[in-house]
Design goal:
By secondary structure, the protein is mainly α. The chain is built from five helices and five strands. It has helices at about 25-35, 70-170, 170-180, 185-275, 280-295, and strands at about 15-20, 25, 55, 300-305, 310. The strands form two sheets. Strands 2-1-3 form a three-stranded antiparallel beta sheet. Helix 3 (about 170-180) packs across helix 4 (about 185-275) and helix 4 packs antiparallel against helix 5. About 5% of the residues are buried.
Length: about 325
């Protein structure tokens, strides 16, 4: 019996090893394989380097089969080559099929995308057409309402023209209109003329009432406008006064800041004079200068600000 290692394709004679699945290889081949991959080379069963089992066999148990000849080996090798070629052909055919299917899939995807874009365009067009149809329906309804209003207005205009003819025309025109309405002798024209006169009177009274209301509303609006203008003028005057006070306050603040800085400078000078040898003479000189400088702004130790208010001046130092 001739046993081959499926990793190195050599005979298994010594230093054998197997995994948990039972497949046998050279110990070195299996170790090298498991250092790169954690699975069996034949069945791909999970196997790590620590699970490899080393086998010890007597050399006498492995013998060459007396029935196996070189012709059989060559025939088996040729058969294997034919099988490999058949498998390669099948793989080539499968690759060609996969490529053709991939191309078809790409073409179908392109068609799908183009169809989707066309569908989106059609949807946009449909929505636009629907909006146009809605606008047209609104226009049609509006036109119908306008036509109905025009008919009513034409009727009212004819009545108004008849009444105006009665009011402004002479006797002959009125007689002609009466003859037109009644023909020979019909009371329907008189009833229609009476209706026109009644309507005209009612409309005249209504217009008088509307005119009076409009005049009253105009007077009230003019009064409100005058009041608003007066209030606006008062607000503007108050704003100007506030702005003047604000400018005065800012000038007072700047003046006081300058005086505060002068006082701080004098205090620092007095503190430095405490450690000088000529203390008394310097003190008298600084006191005289301080008194002279603040006598210009006010008396009795006060500083007069820009708003005519006296601010008490307090200078404390430890001598």
């Amino acid at each position: 019996m001739r046993v081959m290692c499926q990793i190195c394709q050599e005979r298994l004679e010594s230093e054998l090893a197997c995994g948990p699945c039972g497949h046998t290889f050279h110990h070195a081949c299996l170790t090298r394989w498991l250092s790169q991959s954690a699975s069996c080379p034949l069945c791909r069963t999970t196997c790590c380097l620590g699970q490899a089992i080393k086998l010890y066999l007597d050399e006498l148990t492995i013998e060459d089969s007396p029935d196996l000849t070189m012709e059989d080996v060559q025939a088996e090798l040729e058969c294997c080559r034919n099988k490999v070629q058949d498998r390669e052909k099948e793989l080539t055919e499968r690759d060609a099929t996969i490529r053709s299917l991939t191309e078809e899939l790409t073409a179908w995807q392109a068609r799908y995308e183009s169809t989707c874009s066309q569908l989106r365009e059609e949807q946009c067009t449909t929505s636009t057409l629907r909006s146009q149809i809605r606008d047209m329906d609104k226009d049609i309804a509006k036109k119908q309402r306008i036509e109905a209003e025009c008919k009513v207005l034409e009727q009212r205009l004819s009545l108004v023209e008849s009444v105006e003819t009665v009011l402004r025309s002479g006797k002959e025109e009125v007689a002609e209109m009466m003859h037109k309405y009644r023909g020979d002798s019909s009371p329907a024209a008189c009833n229609k003329l009476a209706t026109c006169l009644t309507m005209l009177k009612n409309e005249y009274e209504l217009l008088k009432l509307k005119k009076r209301d409009a005049v009253e509303q105009r007077d009230s609006l003019q009064k409100d406008l005058h009041q608003q203008k007066c209030h606006l003028y008062e607000v503007e005057m108050q704003l100007k006064v506030c702005q003047g006070r604000l400018s005065d306050a800012e000038s007072d603040i700047s003046h006081l800041e300058a005086e505060r800085e002068g006082l701080q400078e004098n205090v620092r000078s007095l503190e430095k004079a405490l450690v000088s040898p000529s203390l008394k003479s310097f003190k008298r000189t600084r006191i005289a200068e301080t008194s002279f400088s603040y006598s210009e702004h006010g008396t009795d130790n006060t500083v007069t600000s820009g708003t005519s208010k006296k601010v008490p001046l307090m200078v404390s130092c430890c001598i």
